[in-house]
Specification:
With 377 residues, this protein is an alpha+beta fold. It has two domains: 134 residues, OB fold (Dihydrolipoamide Acetyltransferase, E2P) (Beta Barrel), CATH 2.40.50.200; 216 residues, no CATH class. The chain contains eleven helices and 17 strands. A hairpin with a 3-residue loop joins strand 14 and strand 15. The chain is globular, with a radius of gyration of 22 Å.
Length: 377
């Protein structure tokens, strides 16, 4: 079988490109993912698409905790989650250090172009014997969203403060929950994808019975990632009950975090492995650093104080902010956003909040590149 694929790959360089008005499959005019999936005959063509994760089986693509650098899944949209719309790419050893997700988790969502044999990989439409691969320089820092022509229509194409204003106007008006209703909402937004009876706790990563909530030791409670004392908004409807920054956390770990700003360093937490804290800052585990950053970016855009009684929240580059409506440390949050890209859990959470509860989205999950446009120094 390996010999047959090799012969097809070698012989295919003399074949004419596929007859298509949309592209020839050449390096200058590559096939899109759908075209490549429909041409699984072992011939060699160029293909382009957005990196959506690492395939580990015919129907499973993971977006975090990558075990190796051997494979990629790509699709026509960076937000694609259905593996039937993805093509699997086998990465040769000479490209793994640059294009493998274990070594480069921040390339998730970026667009690449490659040349290889169109043939099954993991018993799924694939590309093997890759001879050339590179990032698409014109789009590698941009993502697309299914909501660009509708929900984000007035924001697409804007940058800087104009983008921030447009996004605020889009996400500002939404359904506001009571604080008591947050309990049940979190049971759905943070449900363990492998156990529908449990939720995943933010800082510990522990999967726990979704009804084991309250104030006792080892219960989970409602963590305000933007500490509610930073702006003194408490648990009032609005900032105090906004699901986009409320997460289930272990009671004692939540207490340890308190109202500290976010930054690197400190002593390891005895119960929450991978979390660190000192007198004025909290560092969450690596797997949720980006999640934390994107929740805070959302809050800084959503709450601008333009409605009577509503707080104006801002990010700054300090810790120990106390009761003022500021959170930090911005430079660290920007690093976390890059080091821990958006994953499937975040995307699903965003969808559940939008569809079932608040009717608004966190734009920095849908468009991670907007963070740099608005918050970079």
């Amino acid at each position: 079988m390996v010999l047959l694929v090799l012969i097809l790959c070698i012989g295919s360089f003399s074949l004419s490109p596929p007859i298509s008005a949309e592209g020839t499959g050449s390096w200058s005019s590559p096939l899109d993912v759908n075209q490549a999936m429909n041409l699984q005959d072992g011939s060699s063509y160029s293909v382009e698409g957005y990196i959506t994760g690492k395939p580990i089986s015919t129907t499973t693509v993971i977006t975090s905790n990558y075990p190796d650098d051997y494979a990629l899944a790509i699709a026509n949209s960076s937000q694609e989650q259905n593996t039937s719309n993805m093509i699997y790419v086998q990465i040769p050893s000479n490209y793994r250090s640059e294009f493998g997700l274990k070594s480069n988790p921040d390339i998730l969502g970026k667009k690449i172009k490659l040349t290889g044999c169109l043939t099954d990989y993991f018993s799924h439409a694939g590309v093997k014997c890759v001879s050339e691969i590179e990032f698409d320089s014109t789009t590698s820092t941009s993502t697309t969203s299914p909501f660009d022509s509708t929900y984000y229509l007035t924001a697409v194409g804007k940058t800087g403060n104009s983008l921030k204003i447009a996004l605020h106007d889009i996400i500002d008006d939404h359904v506001e929950l009571s604080y008591s209703n947050v309990w049940d909402a979190l049971r759905h937004t943070d449900e363990d994808p492998n156990n529908s009876n449990n939720v995943i706790l933010l800082y510990t990563g522990r999967s726990q019975d979704k009804y084991q909530n309250g104030g006792d030791i080892d219960d989970w409670n409602r963590e305000h990632v933007w500490a509610k004392s930073h702006g003194d908004f408490g648990t009032s409807m609005g900032a105090g009950t906004d699901l986009h920054h409320l997460r289930p956390t272990d009671v004692t770990v939540n207490s340890s975090r308190g109202n500290k700003d976010f930054d690197n360093g400190g002593s390891p937490h005895s119960e929450a492995n991978g979390n660190y804290s000192d007198s004025d800052s909290w560092e969450p585990r690596d797997e949720v650093k980006g999640d934390v950053a994107r929740m805070l970016f959302y809050m800084a855009v959503r709450y601008e104080g333009d409605v009577t009684g509503e707080v104006d929240l801002e990010l700054n580059d300090f810790v120990n902010n106390g009761s003022v409506p500021f959170m930090g440390k911005l430079s660290t949050l920007l690093e976390w956003h890059e080091s821990d890209p958006v994953d499937a859990f975040e995307r699903n959470r965003n969808d559940v909040i939008y569809t079932n509860y608040q009717g608004n989205r966190n734009p920095f999950i849908d468009h991670p590149e907007w963070v740099e446009s608005i918050f970079s120094f």
